[in-house]
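User: Continuing from earlier, I have the next pair ready.

Assistant: Great, send them over.

User: Here they are, in order.

Assistant: Folding the first of the pair now:
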Amino acid sequence: MSIRTAALAAAVSVVAVSAATAEVKFAFIDPLSGPMGPSGEAGFTSFELAAEHINANGGVNGEEIVVTGYDNKVNPKESLVQLQKAIDDGARYILQGNGSSVAAALIEAVNKHNQRNPGEEVVFFNYAAVTPAFTNEACSFYHFRFDAHADMKMAAITDYIKAQDDIKKVYLIGQDYVFGEAVAAAAVSQLGEKRPDIEIVGNELHPLAKVKDFTPYIQKIISSGADAVITGNWGADMQLLMKAAAESGSEIPYFTFYGGSLGAVSALGEGAMDRLYQVTEAITNLEADDAQIELIKEYKERFPEYDYYYHRAFNTLNMFAKAATEAGSNDPIPVAFAMEGMELEEPYGTATMRAEDHQVQQNLYISTVAKVDGADVMFGVDNIDLGWKLLEGGKIDASAAEQPTTCEMERPEKG
């Protein structure tokens, strides 16, 4: 755990203890050190601020939310060790998102724990691990996903590419684990259906968080004659990919899931404008009410090294609070039942937790990079004067973003 994360965790605990109130404990199990540490830190600070706002308004059913960080180093085995520590510490809710290999291990472990320990159940809130299987064949009553899954995001990207007649060749590059495989499979399938004339001129997976210099990969992309690149890279892998792209001098556009990863935009600089694209559930420069604008400003003032990127962290805890209030209980099973089918009015639309598979349904937005102008682009990223701007026609309504599910969920008795 980094010094900053330890300080934040301690601060949250001090607030809870000094208030002398009961606690509902959340365990944040994600990378808090190493090359992917900044991604975890950005998530942790988002949940920390979301919890503070809920606690400032009286908490949930008389209890304050306490979020504690557990460093898993993006390792499934280490994540299981941290999960057990968290449960031993009294955590009833698990927060994780960076790495679908980790999420797969946690889903299985949570299911086994709950089966073996009736009355001591825990629930897993997944805020970023987007392999589609988690809300399809591997769905679980004890797992809820608050980010659009890979097929949903790819549908948005391929719908956009479908209308770009100048794109004839596409290169796929991603991280070599279950998520990267899912992204590549979705791209091949959806492009084949929507634009059968497009040639996939590269389909490459690289080790997760191991590549220090992406120059050889960029040279392959350039040599392929690609008109566009699709990538699901996140964290340091996204930032370093963009660094190599900038150094190459090429102007190939990148369509991404996580182009907003810390440092990616600044790596490209002004070369990111109308060249780097991402699909997300929100961007800071969407029209929003004063309260949301102030929240973004507060986050940036509190955590200037990060950007307001994980809007879904706020949606996660706000939906939990609503479900717990409606259930009249903070216990996981009543909360989980209350959350099924729940609608949350949030700053950028309505987020609905689909009961069939526990996959959130929400608006998606395709954006690109533009100059901060104080009006359409109020907030920059990476502490530079570039920020994300919605493409014309880039809003995808939740109903259009929705994908079918094959989930056949087994539910416990309500009790």
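And the other member of the pair:
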Amino acid sequence: MKRKPTLAEATISEERGVRYLHLGTPWIQGAMRIRQPQKLELEYIQRMMTWLLLRDPDHLPDTRCLQLGLGAAAITKYCHSVLRLPTTAVEINPQVIGVCRAWFHLPDDDERLTVVQADAARYVASDDQVANFDALCVDLYDHDAASPVLDDEAFYRACWRCLDDGGVMTVNLFGRDTSFERSAARISAAFGPNRVAMLKPTTEGNTIVLAWKGFDLPSRDVLTQRAEALHARWSLPAKKWVKLLSSFQPAVTP
């Protein structure tokens, strides 16, 4: 019988107006500026929203969002309350869900928000989720935050399955870790050639990988136009994202 994973205790800390989520260690699992609870506080979390650059603006109002790994609920709140899009978040740890509702302004479920306590791998592998989403954000680290909890090709193929044509996935990886090339190569194997790109690492080493389904990467001019619109509407640093974006070609076997 397969053992259930040991789930770390969710705790919080506060410093200089920012509230942080921890899972049994000092490692930061998420953050919220207390006086601006909808703001995307951490840079890598902002970059997880790079999928907006690849999403056709005409289809943005119909975008169905999925987050695997709730963290401090920053992306979930932003998609639901700022972008006002139908949003589903999957989190295995019930304590994380409870702490996010009590301390990080995660609203109760409503007609646009569903928070599911479940294993992310099982959720995306379900036949019920085929082509159910258009924007998928994957940020799955345990309390050690050493490497992604789910990171094999089968998992990324399941992610591909749950995206509709025109869908985009962003994944948080550690770009300075030796496992980065292997992880990105698995994503490329699942999504196909010329369907993966990456941003340069943040100062902390987080590298956001993008993968997409059913379309070619828009030209740099189109991406720049979309970035200007995103900045004007939501003050997102999207013009910087375009500058940091480059294609990914696997150099290792996944």
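Worth noting for the second one:
The domain at 43-247 is CATH 3.40.50.150 (Rossmann fold). The chain has nine helices and eleven strands.
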